[in-house]
From TrEMBL:
PANTHER family reported for this sequence: CYTIDINE DEAMINASE
Family affiliation: Belongs to the cytidine and deoxycytidylate deaminase family.
EC annotation from Swiss-Prot or TrEMBL: 3.5.4.5
Taxonomy, superkingdom: Bacteria
InterPro entries: CMP_dCMP_dom (IPR002125), Cyt/Deoxycyt_deaminase (IPR050202), Cyt_deam_tetra (IPR006262), Cytidine_deaminase-like (IPR016193)
Key words of the record: Hydrolase, Metal-binding, Zinc
Record: residues binding Zn(2+): C66, C103, C106
Molecular functions per Gene Ontology: cytidine deaminase activity; zinc ion binding
Protein name per its UniProtKB record: Cytidine deaminase
């Protein structure tokens, strides 16, 4: 049963389940030879386009990129900088995962491009089993572009 933190009217549930499905499709492309933990993300733009991403590991670990950042960087590299929501999934292959929350670096990237009062982060364990948060709930007292205004 979806848990939408009281914001069910904002997005249609069928749209959310489609975004989750696309995140699972992206997860299948994850490159995880070291941890085996695979993540996928589907990012919706303000004009309704979807950019997906998967995690990509590296032997040095530091250059590893999370699914969320992969999706954001794909979109930004195509000139898109306005976003409404992202669905995130993660687990080991063949096992049911828990809700996979974005890491701190991914949250900061989201903050760079998204309004924390409006951007929706959907954490899913399945198409019908998800939790929805506003970015401000996952990154309170954040540092953003306005903090650098002169």
């Amino acid at each position: 049963m979806p848990s939408d933190q009281g914001r069910k009217g904002r997005f249609d549930v069928t749209e959310i389940t489609e975004l989750i499905r696309l995140a699972y499709e992206a997860q299948k492309r994850a490159y995880t030879p070291y941890s085996g933990f695979q993540t996928g993300a589907a990012l919706e733009t303000a004009d309704g386009r979807i950019f997906t991403g998967c995690n990509i590991e590296n032997a040095a670990y530091t250059p590893t990129n999370c699914a969320e950042r992969t999706a954001f960087f794909k979109a930004v590299s195509e000139g898109v900088t306005s976003f409404t929501r992202i669905a995130v999934v993660g687990n080991y292959p063949g096992k049911k995962g828990d809700y996979c929350a974005p890491c701190g670096v991914c949250r900061q990237v989201m903050r760079e491009f998204c309004d924390p009062e409006r951007f929706q982060v959907i954490l899913a364990r399945g198409p019908e089993d998800y939790r929805s948060f506003l970015l401000k709930e996952l990154l309170p007292a954040s540092f953003g572009p306005a903090d650098l205004e002169r």
